[in-house]
Design a protein that fits this description.
alpha/beta, 444 residues, six-stranded mixed β-sheet, 23% strand, Rossmann fold, 16 helices
Length: 444
C-alpha cells in the first residue's frame, strides 16, 4: 500500500489502527485534537504526528483517512476531503477489508452491550469460539489476531458512518430513539439512516418490529428478515397478570419472571438473542438455562446498597431519555423514587420526559450538571445541585423506608466525568461513603 495514510484520533481505536499498519511495515501519519504528552509516548519516534488541532494541509493531502469514531464526518475539514474524493473510512471498515471470520453485529440506541454480551456468553457455553469487539472498548483491529468461529461486534452510529463493505452474517437493530442529536444536524432521520447501514451487506437482518425506525427501508431478495418485539414479531411477549412470557409464533414457551433479568427492555433484548441462538441451532433448553441466571451488567439498574428499607440503584449507562424511561417503567410501582437526572444532553429532547414525569407524583428529581436548568424547566419541583455528592447530602435525611434512590441521568457524562462507568463508580463510592459516615455517627 503506497497511499499516504492519515489516522485521525489517537484513542484506543486510532492506536490499534496505527499498530496494525506498523506490523505491515506501513508508516502512516497520525493526528489528534488533544495536545497531551502522554500521547507522544505512545507514538514511535519515526511516525509523523500532529497534536493540538486538526491539520487541514495533512487532511487534504492524504489519500486514505482512518477516522476515529469521536471525530464527526461533518467536520468542515473532513467535508472538504470528501469533496476532493479522498477515501475516508473508520476502523470497522478497515477491519472488514482484512477479516475472513463470520460476523454477528449489534446496534441500537439502547441495549447493544447487553445483547452483545448475552450472545457471546451463550455461544461460549455452547462451545463456539468467539471474541467481542467494537463499541464495547475492545478495538476490532485487535480481533484479527485471534482465530475464532465468530466475531461479535457492538457497533455505534458513529462507527457506522464510515462503513462501506462490511459483510455481516447476522445484523441486529434493537431500537432507535433520540440520541447524539449534537452529532446529526438533520435530526433523528439522519441518525436512523446511519443505523440502517448495518443491514446493507448482511445475510440475515433481525429487527424490532414494534419500532418503525428499525424497519429496513427496502427488503431484498436473498436476505432473511427476522422480527421480535413487545407486541409484534415472530418472537414477542405475552402478559398474564403479573407474569411475562416469551412467545414464539404465538405460543408461550418461557416465563421471564423466573429469571434474574430486570425490566421489560431486557426481556426484549433476550428475544433478539434467542433469534440468533435459533439461527445457530443452539438448543432452546441451553438458552433458557443461561438466561435464567443471567444478571444485568454493571451500571444498568445495578442495586448497589440496601439499608433501612431504602434501595440505591446505579443506572449510569442510561445516557438518553428512552433508557431512563425504561428504568422508571420497571420501578414505577415503588413508593417513592429519588431520581438523579443530568449531564450533557447531546441536544436531545429532554422534554420527552415531561409528560411521563407529570403523571408520576412519586418521582422526586435531583438535577445536576450542564443540563440541570433545562431539567428544572421540565419539572419546577426539581432540586438543583452542582454535583451528585451535593444531591446525596441533600436527600439523605429526607428518604424514608420503601424509597428508591436512582441514578438514571438520561444524559451523557462528559461534562463532569470521563464516561458513564466513571460516573457510576463515583456514585457507588459516594453512596458507600455517606452510609459509612452515618453509621459511624450513630455509634457515637
Amino acid at each position: 500500500m503506497n497511499k499516504k495514510i492519515l489516522i485521525i484520533g489517537l484513542g484506543i481505536t486510532g492506536l490499534s489502527c496505527l499498530n496494525f499498519f506498523l506490523k505491515k511495515k506501513i508508516i502512516p501519519f497520525v493526528m489528534d485534537k488533544r495536545k497531551d504528552r502522554k500521547l507522544i509516548k505512545k507514538i514511535p519516534l519515526y511516525v509523523p504526528y500532529y497534536l493540538g488541532s486538526l491539520n487541514k494541509n495533512w487532511i487534504l493531502s492524504s489519500q486514505l483517512i482512518i477516522l476515529s469514531p469521536g471525530i464527526s464526518i461533518f467536520n468542515h475539514f473532513i467535508l472538504e476531503a470528501q469533496k476532493k474524493n479522498i477515501e475516508i473510512i473508520g476502523d470497522i471498515e478497515l477491519f472488514a477489508r482484512y477479516n475472513t471470520t463470520p460476523l454477528i453485529a449489534v446496534t441500537g440506541t439502547n441495549g447493544k452491550s447487553t445483547v452483545t454480551n448475552m450472545i457471546a456468553h451463550i455461544m461460549k457455553k455452547n462451545n463456539f469460539r468467539v471474541s467481542v469487539g467494537g463499541n464495547n472498548g475492545y478495538p476490532v483491529m485487535n480481533l484479527l489476531s485471534f482465530k475464532r468461529d465468530f466475531y461479535i461486534l457492538e457497533i455505534s452510529s458513529f462507527q457506522l458512518e464510515t462503513i462501506k463493505k462490511l459483510n455481516i452474517y447476522i445484523a441486529i437493530i434493537l431500537n432507535i430513539s433520540q440520541d447524539h442529536m449534537d452529532r446529526y444536524p438533520l435530526g433523528i432521520e439522519q441518525y436512523r439512516d446511519f443505523k440502517l447501514r448495518i443491514y446493507k451487506n448482511a445475510n440475515i437482518c433481525i429487527y424490532n418490529a414494534d419500532d418503525i425506525l428499525c424497519h429496513p427501508k427496502k427488503f431484498y431478495n436473498g436476505k432473511k428478515y427476522i422480527t421480535f418485539g413487545k407486541i409484534l414479531g415472530k418472537y414477542n411477549l405475552s402478559f398474564d397478570k403479573e407474569q411475562v412470557y416469551l412467545k414464539i409464533n404465538n405460543k408461550k414457551i418461557f416465563n421471564f419472571n423466573k429469571t434474574k433479568l430486570v425490566g421489560i427492555h431486557n426481556y426484549l433484548n433476550s428475544l433478539a438473542v434467542l433469534a440468533v441462538i435459533d439461527i445457530l441451532k443452539i438448543s432452546k433448553k441451553n438458552f433458557f438455562k443461561e438466561i435464567n441466571n443471567y444478571k444485568n451488567m454493571d451500571h444498568t439498574l445495578q442495586i448497589i446498597h440496601k439499608e433501612n428499607g431504602v434501595i440505591w440503584i446505579n443506572d449510569s449507562k442510561s445516557t438518553n431519555v428512552n433508557s431512563t424511561k425504561a428504568a422508571l417503567e420497571y420501578l414505577h410501582k415503588k413508593k417513592r423514587i429519588w431520581l438523579f437526572l443530568g449531564g450533557y444532553d447531546k441536544h436531545c429532547n429532554l422534554y420527552l420526559l415531561q409528560k411521563y414525569l407529570q403523571k408520576k407524583d412519586n418521582i422526586k428529581i435531583i438535577c445536576f450538571g450542564k443540563s440541570s436548568k433545562k431539567i428544572l424547566s421540565i419539572d419546577s419541583r426539581a432540586i438543583i445541585v452542582k454535583t451528585i455528592y451535593e444531591g446525596i447530602k441533600k436527600i439523605i435525611k429526607l428518604i424514608k423506608f420503601g424509597d428508591i434512590v436512582l441514578l438514571s441521568p438520561a444524559c451523557s457524562s462528559i461534562d463532569q466525568f470521563k464516561n458513564f462507568k466513571h460516573r457510576g463508580n463515583e456514585f457507588i463510592k459516594l453512596v458507600k461513603k455517606i452510609h459509612k459516615c452515618n453509621n459511624f455517627i450513630k455509634k457515637l
